[in-house]
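Workshop exercise sheet. Pairs work together: one partner reads the sequence aloud, the other fills in the structure field after running the prediction. Swap roles for the next sheet.
Pair: D.N. / O.F.
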Amino acid sequence: MDSITDWLGHSSGPAVYALVAALVFCEDALFFGFVLPGETAVVLGGVVAGQGRVSVYWLAAVVVLAAIAGDSVGYEVGRRFGPRILETKPLRGHQERIDQARDFIRRRGPVAVFLGRFIAFFRAMMPALAGMSRMPYRTFLLFNALGGLIWGVGFTLLGYFAGTAYKQVEKTAGTAVAVVVAAVVVVAVVVWQIRKRRRGRGKGDGADKGGGDGAQEGQSEGGSAERSPDADGDGGRNGDRRH
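Structure field:
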């Protein structure tokens, strides 16, 4: 993994486009993301673009196309081979997370395809699981393309702006300090993304619980409302007797 990232960091031109595209494609099509997450390659490619060695526009386009194509191949693999691929050696040690992914796509459907693009393990597994579940390909492709577009452009720009910061700092503080600054920027953004996802999941769970409590309270209030006319009727009869 280190040798790949080092080589990418010192490459330029077509080699960068080819390597980034291959890593993004293989992550989704061949579960290669367990070795090197595709977003790592995209961010590094963006850093290279920020240094002016490749075009950020062409890099973003290559990333988006590779993501969509890789997901489509992963979908076809899942559709053709079914649950058998979950029993392969590389996946045996990830059964708990695979079960979480299967439950996620069972509850959310195509939305899970879109959201899974932003979670490393789900990004590698979601296309195959969508194929296993017999999700219509047109539906899968729509949500896959939306997720791939936002993810590809977003992480490319993340690396690009980190690369720009690297270039500016390098002029005044030297290469060593610039490397530290670029690393801190990338790590800080990644940590922020992780915390954001965790808070989002927590709010989602709270909303589900709140909805259930609201329904129960609604039933209780409805029951009280149904009993109130009888209570009023009894009060009226008692009043008539006193008169």
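Discussion prompt: DSSP finds nine helices and no strands in the chain. What would you look at next?
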